[in-house]
Each structure stands twice: as C-alpha cells, then as structure tokens.
Amino acid sequence: MLISQTLETPRLILRPISARDLLFFWRLVGNEDVRRFLGGPVPWTQRFARFRSYLSLPAGVGVWIVQTRQNRKQVGLIELSPHKDGEDYEMSYQFHPKWWGRGFAREAAACVIQHSLSGPRLDRIIAETRSANHASCQLLEHLKMVELKRLQRFGAEQVIFATQNSGAHRNSSMDEDG
Asked: Model pTM?
C-alpha cells in the first residue's frame, strides 16, 4: 500500500503535503480553535520546523492536505503515523473552523481508514483525543470506531478509539512500497 498517495472522495481530494501548503499549515497549527484540545497553537517559532518535518516523512507515515474537489480550497490536514504505544498506527486530524460542520473531517477520515485497512499491513487504526473534545469523540464513534481505554496524558483525560478490522494481517513495519 502506498501510504502517501493521493486519495479522493466524492467531495474531497486528500493529497500528500507539499511546499505550496506552508501558509495554510502555518495558519492551521496557529489557530486557537483548531488547537484547543491539542496543546494550544504551535508557537510561530516552531511552525516552520514542524512543516519541514512533514515534507521529509519517513516511510510508513502519511500526511495529507484535505481540499475540496470543487474549488480546491484547503480545509484540513490528516496524519497517519505510529502511535506512542509503538504497536498501532494513529490517525489524527485538524480542520480549519471555517469548514467545520460540513462533514469534511468525517469524509476524509473515513477515506484514510478505508485506504489504510484495505491492504494487508494494518488490522486496525487508533485515534486518541481528549475526552472533553466531544465533537472529535462523536466523529470517531460515527466512523464506527470503539473506545478502547481512557488514560491521563498531556495533563488531561484522553480516550483511545480503534477501528475493528478482522481478518487483516498485522505488520507494523508498514512502508511506502508495500
């Protein structure tokens, strides 16, 4: 499976992040509303370094810019990367508030899940969110992800959700050629 390939839905295009996305990324990670449950806005002194790290990702990590199919407006970002537990892959997402409430995050996340679980590499994807982030919890439940556990991390209660995908072969050494 090529983790960094372009993906499409009826309304969205998910494409690998590129240098042309710097301004959108800068604004997204600096937005207080977007980052309310993610530790706050990324300080402006760290944004460029974080962006550069996304441009040179290791094999097995994907970051997609989500844009509308109709007018190619950038609406969000989705990442699929190894989770802190060292066993699973985690999907995370950030969408600009201007585009909230239109179902774009749900549509893009469903696309990444379907793409990622369609091959033999992963048998599940997890997502970790603050329990106080009700919108994110609802989105993950709508995607049929189930709560695995709650824990304290980053100074707050976190909920870890997981997909259910039986029958797939597990291999956590996913790479881009697979």
From this structure: 0.87
Alpha carbons 90 and 102: distance in angstroms, whole number = 23
Rounded distance, CA 146 to CA 122, Å? 17
Q: How many residues does the chain have?
A: 178
61-106 pLDDT per residue, tens: 889 999 999 999 999 999 999 888 878 999 999 999 999 999 999 9
Q: Which residue has the tokens 């369609």?
A: 118
Q: Which of 94, 129, 111 is nearest to 24 (CA)?
A: 94
| Backbone CA torsion sign across 64, 173, 170, 2 | positive
Q: How many CA atoms lie within 13 A of 8 on its CB side?
A: 4
| Crossing angle of the two packed helices 134-142 and 104-117, in degrees rounded to 10 | 50
Torsions phi, psi of 57, nearest 5? -75, 145
21-32 residue pLDDT tens? 999 999 999 999
Assign 162 to helix, strand or coil: strand
Is 127:160 a contact under the CB 8 Å cutoff? yes
Structure tokens, 176: 């881009």
